[in-house]
Design brief:
By secondary structure, the chain is α/β, with parallel strands linked by helices. The chain has 2 domains: 379 residues, no CATH class; 30 residues, no CATH class. 21% of the residues lie in helices and 38% in strands. The strands form 2 sheets. A 10-stranded mixed beta sheet has the order 2-1-5-7-9-11-13-15-17-19, with helices on one face. A 9-stranded mixed beta sheet has the order 3-4-6-8-10-12-14-16-18. Helix 3 runs antiparallel to helix 6 and helix 7 packs across helix 8. The radius of gyration is 21 Å and the shape is globular.
Length: 444
C-alpha cells in the first residue's frame, strides 16, 4: 500500500478541522489537490524517472504527526531564542516555528514592502496562491495544497529596492515526530528588487522531522530577486522542497541552494519565462556525509527570445553519502538567441560515496547557444602528495582542496555577508563539527 494513502485518509477524517484553521482561499484548493493525489495513487519511488536516488514513498512513509490544531510546541512563537542572524548586516526577519508564522521584525517595514502570514495574505490577496508553475501532477505540491494552513508572504511593490535582506528562519521544536507543511510566496513587482534568505534548522537532534515545503516566486517586468536557501539540519530531518518561479520580461533571478547537513533531501526547481530578456541562475552547493542523501532536480524552460540561464551544482560527498542531480534545459520553438549553460561537478571524498547525474538539453529552436556537462571524480592524489611533501598535514590538505573545489559555487552567492557566513559554516562542516549551526547562533 502506498504511503500516500495515510495522508488521504487523514485528510478525509480531519478536513473540517483543517479548514477551520485556514482561510477560504486555501480551503478552496483542497478538492483539486485531492483529485490529483487520488489520480497519482502514490508518491514517486526510487527508480521512477527523475528519482534515481530518493524515494518519496519512503520519505513520507513514517507516521509523523501533523499539527492541524495549530498547537504551539516548546517555546511556541518565541523563535528569537534560536536566532540565525547573518553577521554584519541587519535583516528583516520572520520565522516559521514548525509550520506557524511568527513575525520577529518589530520595527516598521520599509515602505512598499509587505511581510506577513500567508493565511492573512490569502484573505487580502486570494490570487497569491496561484503563482506556482510546478507540473500539475507534482505530488509534493498537491500534498502541500491539501494540508496547507499557514506560511509566509513577501511582497515588494513596484519600483521598490529593498534595503535589507528578508530572512525566513524555519525551525522545528516539537518533542515528537512531526511533519510541517510550509509555503513561502515571494512576489516582486515590476522594477523592484529584493534579497531573501531562507534557513532551515531543528532545535534538537533527538526527534524525527519532515518538511513538505513549496516556495512560489513571481518576478514582474525588470524585477530582480536573489533567493538563498540554506539547509542545516540533522540526520533525523528529511525535506522535500519544490521551488517554482515565473519571470516577467527583463527580470533577473538568482537561486542559491546550500545543503550542509541533514538526512534525506529532495529539492526541485521549476523556472519559466513570461517575456524576452530574462536571466536565470540556479546554483547548488552540497556537502554530505554519513548516510545523508541529497537529490537536486532543476527544470528551466526557455520559450522567449534573448533569455539566458546558467546552472551550476557542486557536490562533495563523504562516507556513504549519496548525491543526485537531474537537470533539464528546455529551449522551445521561438526562443531564439537563448544562451543556456548547465554544469554539474562532483567530488567523491570516500570510496563508499555515490553520485548519480543526468544533465539534459532539449532544443527545439535554431539560433541558440547551449551547453551541459557533468563530471565526477576524487581528490587529486598528486596535489595531496605535493602539499604533504611541503609539510601540510593530510587532513588539512584535503580541506584545502575541497574548499578550492567548492569555491566556484560560493562565488555565485551574491550577498557578501551571507557568502562570508557560508564559507565559515563550510569550513566547520569540513572539519567535522557536528554543531556547525552554532556558528549561526551568535558564536561568530
Amino acid at each position: 500500500m502506498s504511503s500516500l494513502n495515510q495522508y488521504l485518509q487523514f485528510f478525509e477524517a480531519n478536513r473540517a478541522a483543517i479548514d477551520s484553521h485556514a482561510p477560504e482561499a486555501m480551503n478552496c484548493r483542497r478538492d483539486a489537490a485531492l483529485a490529483t493525489l487520488r489520480r497519482l495513487a502514490r508518491f514517486p519511488d526510487r527508480g521512477d524517472e527523475g528519482f534515481e536516488v530518493v524515494s518519496l514513498e519512503d520519505m513520507y512513509a513514517p507516521d509523523y504527526g501533523i499539527n492541524i490544531a495549530r498547537v504551539p510546541f516548546g517555546e511556541g512563537g518565541k523563535s528569537g531564542v534560536h536566532g540565525c542572524d547573518i553577521p554584519n548586516v541587519g535583516t528583516i526577519s520572520a520565522s516559521v516555528v514548525n509550520d506557524s508564522f511568527v513575525n520577529d521584525y518589530q520595527r516598521a517595514l520599509p515602505e512598499g514592502v509587505e511581510l506577513m502570514s500567508l493565511a492573512r495574505a490569502a484573505e487580502l490577496y486570494p490570487d497569491c496562491l496561484s503563482l506556482s508553475v510546478a507540473p500539475a501532477d507534482n505530488a509534493v505540491v498537491a500534498l502541500n495544497d491539501l494540508l496547507l494552513q499557514d506560511g509566509v508572504y513577501i511582497r515588494v511593490h513596484r519600483g521598490v529596492s529593498l534595503p535589507k535582506p528578508i530572512q525566513i528562519l524555519s525551525l522545528f521544536n516539537a518533542s515528537m515526530p512531526l511533519m510541517a507543511v510550509r509555503r513561502i510566496v515571494v512576489d516582486v513587482e515590476d522594477n523592484a528588487s529584493a534579497i531573501v534568505i531562507a534557513c532551515d534548522h531543528p532545535r534538537t537532534t533527538e526527534v524525527d522531522y519532515l518538511a513538505c515545503r513549496v516556495v512560489d516566486i513571481r518576478l514582474g517586468r525588470g524585477a530582480s530577486l536573489d533567493f538563498n536557501d540554506l539547509e542545516e539540519a540533522t540526520a533525523r530531518c528529511s525535506r522535500s522542497s519544490v521551488i517554482t518561479a515565473v519571470q516577467g520580461a527583463d527580470s533577473d533571478l538568482h537561486i542559491s541552494s546550500i545543503t550542509l547537513d541533514g538526512g534525506v533531501t529532495r529539492n526541485e526547481y521549476y523556472v519559466s519565462h513570461l517575456g524576452d530578456g530574462c536571466h536565470t541562475s540556479v546554483n547548488g552547493i552540497v556537502v554530505a556525509g554519513g548516510t545523508q542523501v541529497v537529490d537536486n532536480a532543476s527544470y528551466v524552460v526557455h520559450d522567449h527570445e534573448h533569455c539566458t540561464s546558467d546552472q551550476l551544482f557542486k557536490y562533495a560527498l563523504f562516507d556513504s553519502a549519496q548525491g543526485g542531480f537531474e537537470g533539464l534545459v528546455n529551449v522551445r520553438h521561438g526562443a531564439r538567441f537563448t544562451d543556456a549553460a548547465q554544469s554539474n561537478r562532483n567530488l567523491l571524498v570516500s570510496p563508499q560515496a555515490r553520485m548519480h547525474a543526468m544533465p539534459q538539453l532539449v532544443i527545439d529552436c535554431d539560433d541558440v547557444k547551449a551547453s551541459h556537462g557533468s563530471a565526477t571524480g576524487q581528490l587529486n592524489a598528486d596535489a595531496l602528495f605535493y602539499m604533504q611533501s611541503r609539510g601540510i598535514p593530510a587532513d588539512e590538505a584535503r580541506m584545502i582542496l575541497i574548499n578550492a573545489f567548492m569555491a566556484e559555487g560560493m562565488e555565485k552567492i551574491k550577498h557578501e555577508p551571507l557568502r562570508s557566513t557560508l564559507l565559515m559554516l563550510l569550513d566547520r562542516r569540513l572539519r567535522g563539527c557536528s554543531d556547525s549551526c552554532a556558528a549561526c547562533h551568535g558564536h561568530h
